[in-house]
Write a structure and sequence with these properties.
Elements (H helix, E strand, L loop, with lengths): L1 E2 L10 H11 L11 H21 L6 E4 L2 H19 L5 E5 L4 H14 L2 E5 L9 H7 L4 E5 L13 H10 L4 E4 L11 H4 L3 E5 L10 E5 L25 H16 L1 H22 L4 E2 L10 E5 L5 H10 L2 E2 L15 H5 L4 H4 L2 E5 L6 H20 L3
Parallel strand pairs: 1-11, 3-4, 3-5, 5-6, 6-7
Antiparallel strand pairs: 2-8, 7-8, 9-10, 10-12
Helix pairs in contact: 1-8, 2-8, 3-4, 5-6, 9-13, 10-13
This protein binds pyridoxal-5'-phosphate.
The site of pyridoxal-5'-phosphate (PLP) has 15 residues, from helix 3.
Length: 384
């Protein structure tokens, strides 16, 4: 099997599992306990926080461990907007882009349904990019928060985050970015990016599912969503997932260390794969930006097919990939991301996304490109 669905999830790396192992077994203490086992766990948690902070170029106190990317996005969007509204009730609008993950989009809709917020959606162009001028135009004196993702999970387009964050800063509005897909591939220095909050998820990086991080800058006010014993400096109560935090920190550090070399190698393989698919499959369309895209994502529409049938055919040929986001898998509805990019519903329904991890090889991608050609041909021969 050739696994080309790394944007959905990745296996846990051996080094990560080895780093986690002690905290799942002998050193199983609760970091809040006042005995040696507790101290050992607290030390491991602090060290994981230090490692994450080193990658993000921030202070350890600005790192909050969460149960994953979804919780980090919820905490950022709801937590910052609600804290700002509580301090100044006229701050009752949030800005998101038209291509956000549901974790951001639905958090904004929740604010709209239950807390009197209006949601302003900044459009993207046909490649999925948000123009800084479009953000500037949509900002209002009542805007409490801007949340625009770093890299898109369906088409891989990478936003000009530093420029967008600068627009928000200029208007005095905190800026959150969902960096779940960017982490491990793109620079994450929060100072250079100029973001006030940033979400990361462990399982996209070779750490287990169910662990994530939210960076929140310095004095940015944030209302917790989970109340209880006041762990994570009151921002996220609940006994910490010590092994998960250690795993995430290890995976992030490893990915960061190899980033430049890895990014170049995988981007070159991606480009060769895109080229092979575009030349081998008549009518194939690359979705997303041709160059400003994640090294790890190649996404297409194959007009005259159904994306789901192509996926089934590919799996029969030993290639595992997806139609877009794992959350929408199996759904017949056209992807809101592709709709936002301007694709008609019948073309959007033909989407297939190939996403790689750092271990991908040229041979895998050559085989996959051949399988794509066959799969699309057979689906078309059967009338889509
Ligand atoms: N944001 C983006 C861009 C994602 O791709 C995902 C996962 O697919 C998430 C958020 C949610 O992360 P998690 O699966 O850790 O909840």
């Amino acid at each position: 099997m050739i696994f080309l669905d790394a944007a959905a999830t990745t296996p846990v790396r051996r080094e990560v599992l080895e780093a986690m192992w002690p905290y799942l077994t002998g050193d199983f203490g609760n970091p809040s306990s006042h005995h040696t086992l507790g101290d050992t766990a607290a030390t491991a948690l602090a060290s994981a926080r230090d490692s994450v902070a080193a990658v993000l170029g921030c202070r350890p106190g600005e790192v909050t461990f969460t149960s994953g990317g979804t919780e980090a996005d919820n905490l950022a969007v709801k937590g910052i907007a609600l804290a700002r509204q509580a301090a100044r009730p006229q701050l009752n609008r949030v800005v998101i882009s038209a291509v956000e993950h549901p974790a951001v989009e639905e958090s904004a809709r929740y604010l709209e349904r239950f807390h009197g917020f209006a949601v302003d959606v900044v459009p993207v162009d046909g490649t999925g990019l948000v123009a800084p001028e479009s953000l500037r135009a949509i900002l209002r004196p009542e805007t409490a928060l801007v949340s625009i993702m770093y890299a898109n999970n369906e088409v891989g387009t990478v936003q000009p985050v530093a420029e967008l964050a600068a627009e928000a800063r200029h208007a005095g509005v905190p800026f959150h970015t969902d960096a779940v897909q960017a982490a491990g591939w793109l620079p994450l220095d929060t100072g250079t990016l100029g973001v006030d909050a940033m979400s990361i998820s462990g399982h996209k990086l070779g750490a287990p599912k169910g662990c994530g991080v939210l960076f929140v800058r310095g004095r940015t006010r944030i209302e917790p969503l989970i109340h209880g014993g006041g762990q994570e400096r009151g921002r996220r109560s609940g006994t910490e997932n010590v092994a998960g935090a250690v795993g995430l920190a290890t995976a992030l550090t490893l990915a960061q260390a190899r980033q430049e070399e890895q990014r170049r190698r995988v981007a070159a393989l991606r480009d060769a794969f895109i080229n092979a698919v575009l030349t081998g499959v008549p009518g194939a369309v690359l979705t997303g930006h041709p160059t400003r895209r994640l090294p790890s994502v190649a996404s297409f529409c194959f007009p005259g097919t159904s994306g789901e049938s192509v996926l089934l055919e590919l799996e029969r040929e030993g290639v595992v990939c997806s139609s877009g986001s794992a959350c929408a898998a199996g759904s017949d509805a056209p992807s809101p991301v592709l709709t936002a990019l301007g694709y008609e519903a019948e073309v959007a329904q033909t989407a297939v996304r190939f996403s790689f991890d750092a271990a991908v090889t040229e041979e895998d991608l050559n085989t996959a490109a051949g399988a794509v050609r066959h799969a699309v041909e057979s689906v078309r021969a059967l009338g889509g």
